[in-house]
Amino acid sequence: MKRKKNSPKLWIAVCFIGLILFLLSSGSGKITPWGPIARSVIDITAPFQNLTAKICSAVEGFWLTYFHLIKVREENAQLKASVDALKLENSRYREMLSDYRRFEELLQFKESSDRPSLAARVIGLDPTGWFKSVIIDKGEKQGVKLDMSVVNADGIIGRVVSVSQNYSKVLLIIDQNSAVDCLVQRSRERGIAVGLSTNICKLNYVQESGDVVVGDIIVSSGLAGVFPKGLPVGEVLDIKDVPGELFKDINIKPAVDFSRLEAVLLIAKEHVPSLDQTKTE
């Protein structure tokens, strides 16, 4: 087999590079001006060196910018996490302040009542769904008894109808099975407030000739000893005189916003002497 002959171009390139290296190194140790060949070589190679330097600089700048952006993004993520944590903490503080204000209002109401009372918190709705009622976080162990009235700073909420060791159920006055003996605060007309819907109660048994007008405040009468006397029940919304009926058709708006029940106050039922006890005395 014949061996391949080396290409003349390869030898020319090797000789040219060797010549360049010889010319550049021949002046080592001396400071001499470039000769014609050296200048030609520099003129040829310098643009490539300049281009290479620019490319390296661009690549270096890209990588530095890239890593800087990564660092900035990490710092932004850390700052966002810190801001979110501060927002959450701020929200907790606002909620604590709101709870404090609600319990402060209940405490002021408690101080104005001469009956034993107990603060509680609403933790849920009646799971059966048959009644408009709520569950509170106090029960027999904490001293809760049946028929204790449940109120807040706005007015009457309802009464305790079921009690377990640590929880109780409160029937709200907006339930149709609830009944509160009431007075028209201005005229002292009597009636019974019964539940109708979430936002409306009926004031029954007010005589046709009774003195009631829209805007009158309805308060508890204190009879039967369940609810203390004078607690707000609601405000008269509208009145209808039904021909042939003995009583007015009156709707009242409850004083309490039942969509925002949280902190409540339980008040012990007042002991009402029976007729036999009264005769004995």
Automatic annotation (TrEMBL):
The keyword Transit peptide does not apply. Involved in formation and maintenance of cell shape. Keywords: Cell shape, Coiled coil. PANTHER family: CELL SHAPE-DETERMINING PROTEIN MREC (PTHR34138). It comes from the Bacteria. GO terms for biological process: regulation of cell shape. Pfam families: MreC. Gene3D superfamilies: Rod shape-determining protein MreC, domain 1, Rod shape-determining protein MreC, domain 2. Residues 69-96 form a coiled coil. This is Cell shape-determining protein MreC. One of its GO terms (cellular component) is plasma membrane. The gene is mreC. The lineage of its organism: Bacteria, Pseudomonadati, Thermodesulfobacteriota, Desulfobacteria, Desulfobacterales. Residues 122-267 form the Rod shape-determining protein MreC beta-barrel core domain. Belongs to the MreC family. It comes from uncultured Desulfobacterium sp.
